[in-house]
Amino acid sequence: MGFEGEKREEEEGVRMANDFFWSYTDEPHASRRRQILSQYPQIKHLFGPDPFAFLKISGVVLLQLWTATFLHDATWLKILIVAYFFGSFLNHNLFLAIHELSHNLAFSTPTYNRWLGIFANLPIGVPMSVTFQKYHLEHHRFQGVDGIDMDIPSQTEAHVVKNVLAKSIWVILQLFFYAFRPLFLKPKPPGVWEFINFTIQLSLDGAMVYFWGWKSLAYLILSTFVGGGMHPMAGHFISEHYVFKPEQETYSYYGPLNFMTWSVGYHNEHHDFPRIPGSKLYKVKEIAPEYYENLDAYKSWSQVIYMYIMDRTVGPFSRMKRKLSTKANKSE
After folding, report:
1. Over its length of 332 residues, how does the chain's per-residue pLDDT go in tens digits?
2. Quick one: which H or E segment has residue 269?
């Protein structure tokens, strides 16, 4: 692969990136998908919805909503503790369930997945499931493409977040950057489904406040906020595509938190085969191990966060970018 634009400047003896990594080849997943399928066509049998997705999502949604009502008169300290050590895991699980549903991996009918996504959105407290799908599918079709892939930090973020303190704050607030970046850089006009998502979510929030009070709603919002910041599960935001070595732009994680995150850690496998549900992604690596064993992977998302903050050569600029190619991947 050809790389350019690795402009560096010296700061106290450490080389700091002041531009993204630029690639002049297409993203690697489409070509690897073709190679694997030509050698292991049986992988196509893994395509299709997860038949247990609805039950798994329903269980987490009901448990989290019940927890919110249970804490309606708890102290703020108790709410914060429960939100960080319990609710954050549930809400992040639901965020990644919405990711799964954006690929239509619960039902064969896209509309049913969209409705389930709106349902999964309820404990998160903020309407996002419909909008997320719009931008996330572009991340797959145009990985790293300048101006299209909104998973990549903005120039402003990259120029401001340059030291340990700034990176720590950025990690704490990364969910806000992740959510609002596309709305500022590449806004899409809302449609009927966004209105439905917005209306149902605000109705649930209003009902929560009316029947159980502000503390119940605050618990849900806190669970979302802390679960997307300085939190072990949030390490996947960084581990997936932040470049720690220029030769690789997507990284997998093979640790125990995959159990709680719809196996999103199998990220090379997911980008290679986005039509395979998370519950079966491990089988891709088992069937075609030679394509993944030589790729760098992680065993700890917490360690990834630590590395990102403390390594002074790594920051928001540590992402692969490319110009739009006429051969851009058009499949999910």
Report:
1. 333 334 334 344 445 568 899 998 889 999 999 999 999 999 999 999 999 999 999 999 999 999 999 999 999 999 999 999 999 999 999 999 999 999 999 999 999 999 999 999 999 999 999 999 999 999 999 999 999 999 999 999 999 999 999 999 999 999 999 888 998 999 999 999 999 999 999 999 999 999 999 999 999 999 999 999 999 999 999 999 999 888 899 999 999 999 999 999 999 999 999 999 999 999 999 999 999 999 999 999 999 999 999 998 999 999 999 998 745 555 55
2. helix 267-272
Q: Give ∠ CA 110-208-194 in degrees, rounded to 5.
A: 30
In the chain, alpha helices (H): 28-39, 53-70, 76-82, 88-102, 110-121, 129-141, 155-160, 164-172, 174-185, 192-212, 214-227, 235-239, 267-272, 281-287, 301-310
Alpha-carbon distance of 322 to 258, in angstroms, equals 29
Beta carbons of 53 and 197 less than 8 angstroms apart: no
**Neighbour tally for 131: CB within 10 Å:** 19
- List, in sequence order, every beta strand (DSSP E) within the chain: 3-4, 8-11, 14-17, 21-23, 252-253, 297-298, 320-321
Q: Which two tokens stand for residue 304?
A: 């990834």
Distance CA 32, CA 255 (A): 23
Identity of residue 223: S
**Of residues 54, 46, 62, the one with CA closest to residue 107:** 54
Residue 15, sorted as left (phi over 0), alpha (psi -120 to 50) or beta, turns out to be beta
How far apart (Å, rounded) are the C-alpha atoms in residues 286 and 38?
16
Using CA of residue 12, residue 13, residue 16, residue 18, what is the dihedral sign?
A: positive
Q: Which amino acid is at 259?
A: F
The two structure tokens encoding residue 186 = 């590449």
Helix 88-102 to helix 110-121 angle (10° resolution) is 160
Q: Are strands 21-23 and 320-321 parallel, antiparallel or unpaired?
A: parallel
